[in-house]
Specification:
The protein is mostly beta strands. The protein has helices spanning 2-18, 83-88, and strands at 21-34, 47-57, 62-76, 91-106, 120-139, 142-165, 168-179, 207-219. The chain has an eight-stranded antiparallel beta barrel with strand order 1-2-3-4-5-6-7-8. Strand 2 (47-57) and strand 3 form a beta hairpin. The radius of gyration is 22 Å and the shape is elongated.
Length: 228
């Protein structure tokens, strides 16, 4: 009986492994910052953003998605439309490294088993994200690094994608990230010794946005999604 059960679970596990489509690929685009320094434009790619991603397609409507993206975010008060910021004249640069895992949902069926049929679908993505960045502070108008820190982030991404070739999927997406820190720009340092240097709106958190293209390669056996 034990041997039968072991064989049964092995067959199920093997079926799960071969009944899914895997996608691996890259993200290439730009980033911009929304906070207490610089412009307040929501989507305005300024610095190069690159990343890698992996998707496990559970059904034609949803995938589990894992990614790593890095970029430089910047802000310059002289580029702002807000007069007070222009007069202040602060600027900053910060390096961010983002790790993300979550769920991608397709609005239309995106069945990659049907390789001869070109499909297009809008999609949304969200999940759990952790970003590594530099804690900054501004003194005498100059931005300096205190130490390296990390924060949890909520990603809110919308996009559209299509299976342009048999084994390739091309997408375009815009993803806003709501962070749980207000110091990507040096306006609210966590170091208590630097509290006198705080400025800006201390009741709002910082945002950053990734905009760009994804291209993924699909591999392993094409799934035959069956109705439950």
């Amino acid at each position: 009986m034990k041997r039968i059960l072991v064989l049964f679970f092995c067959l199920i596990f093997q079926n799960v492994l071969t009944a899914q489509i895997n996608e691996i690929g890259v993200f290439l685009g730009g980033s911009n910052f929304i906070g207490d320094v610089g412009k307040t434009t929501y989507v305005s790619p300024e610095k190069l953003a690159i990343g890698i991603l992996y998707k496990w397609n559970k059904s034609p409507r949803h995938s589990y998605r894992f990614s790593y993206t890095q970029s430089t975010i910047t802000g310059n008060d002289l580029d702002s439309d807000v007069k007070a910021r222009v007069e202040r004249g602060y600027k900053f640069k910060n390096e961010i490294k983002e790790f993300s895992a979550g769920l991608e949902f397709n609005f239309f069926d995106f069945n990659l088993h049907e390789v001869l049929i070109k499909k297009v679908t809008p999609y949304v993505y969200t999940g759990i994200t952790y970003t590594i960045y530099d804690e900054l502070y501004v003194i005498n108008g100059e931005t300096k690094k205190d130490y390296t820190a990390g924060t949890f982030v909520i990603p809110m991404t919308v996009g559209v994608k299509s299976n342009v070739l048999e084994n390739f999927v091309l997408g375009f997406e815009v993803g806003a990230r709501y962070t749980f820190t207000d110091n990507l720009d040096g306006s609210l340092p966590k170091n208590k010794n630097l509290e006198p240097l705080k400025f800006g709106n201390i009741n709002s958190k910082d945002w950053y946005v990734f905009s760009g293209f994804t291209i993924t390669y699909t591999f392993t056996e094409k799934p035959c999604y069956c109705k439950e």
